[in-house]
Q: What sequence folds into this?
């Protein structure tokens, strides 16, 4: 009975839990509420994925209003996959958050922090699950407003400025998306994505449709931090609390990418996007330039969080490159990297969070001697780093392997060489941290430092272990990504 | 009527973009507000502009597009207004906090000649 209502529960539970955090402010209760809500959402997304694989697309009519008039939640292999990524990484990060946030944020306004976290979480899940274009915009704004608050809660005063800059760019991005949706509505008179798809694709290269397409692609690119629209991201991830950096790096940009894929493939259709408007070429160029420029910038950073933030922009390049190939193999590789990157950046940012917890800084100097004094933390960091570089037996390898295969399959083999070359840049910036951590003596003024507590280490290691697990037992990420790619491509490009 | 509304949207957007590119945070906020007004007005017009048309079909008479206003854009605009109000409110709070912390209202957090 209740199983029928899982799609709405996925969104409504975090939404209800958010005000509960404000009501029950006693010691640790807000965190407990957030943790229970996150884990329940994780369980629900697992059930939804299993349901999609066994019975196919789930359509949930809110308030029993039949689509296209009512709002429909429509779950296919693509968004079930993204839901699992978002809720899975959040489930690990929220466990990490308790002690990490106490150290970095304090207890006094903890309940407000977890309220903002739950609203962001609800918004991200809502964007992913909805089958209504305007509903998507509303959830996007819910998640964005929550994100601004989360970033501003960093204890460095630059966190406010970072949040402020993201506020400006994020609002512009959301405005672009709503203009695009407005144009689509003006042309078709519908907001339901499936209904839109049929009507929009019947128009072909109509000027209004092209304008709508442009606004939607640029708006989504701002949200997913595609180079050169990534300017808000480095400062935001650097100055946000460690838990927020891990949460956002693993979820927010992934949902942005999902929005792009959903609009480009489901609503406009690959035929219109890639053949009529040849979106593939500009996307591939931006992705490649972004990969090299931001990886190079990452090498010269002296703050590890900032370095990882630039690396995130580079990794988004791999996903977008996969999408831009617009073959079955390419789209699957992009989505696979979405899954894997969530795991690796989750593990890396959590490991940095452990260092911040003990040493109080994420600057490169703070890592000096960490290899000996915090061996487990640094081992987790190295696991995440190896996965980021893409060595075999890690999740990162699987994604890059399929990406290279897809590029060769498409005949773009020079790009395959560039992908491998840009991975070498990741070796350099990860090695800089490893060198400082293992081969440099700790700063004399740092004082005694011990291993991070288990409450931080366990979630960090859960994510690090997932990087190895999904590098060896690849059925979930590889098959999931292929099922997702098949569901949005239909018969196109095969 | 379409011409006047189009002009209004254009003027609002133009002023909004100009203000958005100014270096002071308050002007940026006003710019974003103006742009969101323009977008709201635009969405409002996507259902077509009609005078004296109700979004209700009379019982007994066949509905015709000539005397029927599409209610969906009006509902969308209400939602968009609430969202832009929330964003502006949050924006002002962040602006005040940043002003207090940095001592300047420049968007970079410091004056250019410093």
A:
């Amino acid at each position: 009975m209740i199983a029928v209502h899982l799609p709405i529960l996925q969104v409504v539970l975090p939404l209800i839990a958010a005000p509960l955090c404000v009501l029950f402010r006693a010691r640790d209760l807000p965190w407990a509420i957030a943790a229970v809500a996150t884990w329940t959402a994780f369980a629900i997304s697992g059930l939804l994925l299993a349901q999609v694989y066994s019975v196919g697309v789930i359509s949930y009519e809110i308030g029993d209003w039949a689509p296209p008039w009512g709002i429909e939640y429509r779950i296919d292999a693509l968004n079930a996959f993204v839901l699992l990524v978002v809720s899975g990484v959040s489930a690990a990060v929220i466990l990490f958050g308790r002690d990490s946030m106490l150290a970095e944020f304090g207890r006094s306004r903890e309940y407000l922090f977890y309220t903002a976290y739950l609203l962001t979480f609800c918004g991200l899940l809502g964007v992913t699950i909805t089958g209504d274009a305007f509903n998507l915009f509303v959830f996007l704004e819910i998640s964005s407003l929550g994100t601004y608050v989360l970033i501003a809660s960093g204890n460095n005063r630059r966190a406010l400025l970072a949040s402020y800059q993201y506020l400006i760019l994020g609002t512009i991005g959301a405005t672009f998306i709503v203009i695009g949706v407005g144009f689509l509505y003006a042309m078709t008179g519908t907001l339901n994505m499936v209904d839109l798809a049929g009507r929009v694709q019947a128009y072909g290269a109509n000027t209004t449709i092209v304008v709508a397409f442009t606004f939607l692609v640029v708006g989504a690119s701002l949200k997913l931090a595609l180079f050169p629209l990534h300017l808000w991201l480095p400062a935001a991830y650097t100055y946000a609390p460690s838990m927020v950096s891990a949460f956002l790096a693993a979820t927010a940009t992934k949902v942005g990418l999902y929005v792009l894929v959903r609009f480009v493939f489901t609503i406009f259709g690959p035929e219109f996007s890639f053949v009529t408007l040849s979106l593939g070429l500009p996307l591939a160029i931006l992705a490649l330039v972004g990969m090299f420029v931001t990886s190079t910038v990452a090498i010269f950073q002296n703050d590890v969080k900032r370095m990882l933030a630039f690396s995130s922009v580079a990794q988004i390049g791999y996903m977008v490159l996969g999408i831009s190939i617009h073959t079955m193999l390419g789209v699957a590789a992009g989505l696979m990297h979405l899954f894997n990157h969530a795991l690796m950046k989750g593990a890396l940012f959590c490991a940095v969070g452990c260092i911040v917890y003990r040493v109080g800084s994420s600057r490169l100097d703070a890592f000096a001697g960490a290899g000996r004094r915090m061996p487990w933390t640094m081992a987790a960091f190295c696991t995440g780093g190896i996965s980021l570089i893409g060595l075999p037996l890690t999740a990162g390898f699987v994604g890059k392997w399929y990406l290279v295969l897809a590029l060769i399959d498409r005949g773009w083999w020079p790009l395959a060489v560039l992908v491998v070359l840009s991975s070498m840049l990741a070796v350099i910036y990860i090695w800089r941290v490893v060198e400082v951590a293992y081969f440099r003596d700790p700063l004399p003024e740092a004082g005694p430092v011990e291993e991070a507590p288990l409450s931080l280490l366990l979630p960090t290691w859960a994510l690090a272990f997932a990087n190895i697990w999904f590098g060896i037992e690849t059925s979930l990420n590889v098959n999931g990504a292929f099922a997702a790619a098949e569901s949005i491509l239909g018969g196109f490009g095969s | 009527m379409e011409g006047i509304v189009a002009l209004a949207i254009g003027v609002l957007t133009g002023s909004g973009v100009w203000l958005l590119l100014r270096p002071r945070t308050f002007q940026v906020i006003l710019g974003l507000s103006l742009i969101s007004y323009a977008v709201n007005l635009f969405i409002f017009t996507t259902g077509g502009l009609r005078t004296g048309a109700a979004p209700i079909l009379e019982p007994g008479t066949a509905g015709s597009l000539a005397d029927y206003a599409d209610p969906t854009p009006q509902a969308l605009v209400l939602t968009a207004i609430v969202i832009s109000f929330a964003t502006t409110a949050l924006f002002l709070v962040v602006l005040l906090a940043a002003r207090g912390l940095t001592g300047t209202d420049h968007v970079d957090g410091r004056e250019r000649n410093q």
